[in-house]
FYVE-type domain-containing protein
Amino acid sequence: MDWCGLAAARPAHWVPDAHALCCFACGTSFGALIRRHHCRCCGAVFCHACSSRSTSLHGWGLEQSVRVCEECYSFEVSQLPVLLAGDLFWRTARWTGTRSGRYLRLSADQSAIIWTTWRDDSGAETSAERTLPLSNLRFVSVAQDGRRIELHKDGGEMLSFEAEAAQTAAWAAALARLVAILKQRHSYERLYGGRIESFSPRSKAILAPRIRLCLERRQQQLVSSNQAKLLAAMNPN
Ligand SMILES: [Zn+2]
Ligand SMILES: [Zn+2]
């Protein structure tokens, strides 16, 4: 396979074999019988049992099914589709206390969080999108009431969006995992690949227009089916 134009070169975010003495998940020591395997998503090193799943990683430009660790597998297969489909959250204006809907989603190339105003009769507005690039998202937390997801930006500013506790928890966990993968890849790239770029958003890895188109189509389907569900619940007739 040709990684970044360097045939047979180790991808920059892979932990070198010499730095991995045991499996990053279960701690089993590597040796003649227990081989090392790299998760193509996060770049960490695992035994076969802890990395036996495979999935395509379109967001990283990998169309074919590749080896991933358990955590990355469940992110790609169950958490990522939730973020791409988007969902309805509420924001409360600080001075007036007015509540208004926001449709929140992850961008198709998985590089930013996007939100638009929600209309109960027509769904998400298509104009006036606001975006938060993941490179500016420092960490994600959940407010004490369990209903508000808090997005902490570089520089200290915080955005909060409210929903049912289960939805908030699912989004917080999925976004935290996404940020963790990005940070882990970035730190491995710096440590082992000599890269000093501040962040490597997924969009950079998606070079082929075909993959980009496929990502956009996938998101359109997820978003429109979820919006149709929400609108049907709000407008029963
Ligand atoms: Zn293991
Ligand atoms: Zn992984």
In short: The chain is about 30% helix and 25% strand. Residues 1-8 have pLDDT under 50 and may be disordered. The longest helix spans residues 165-193.
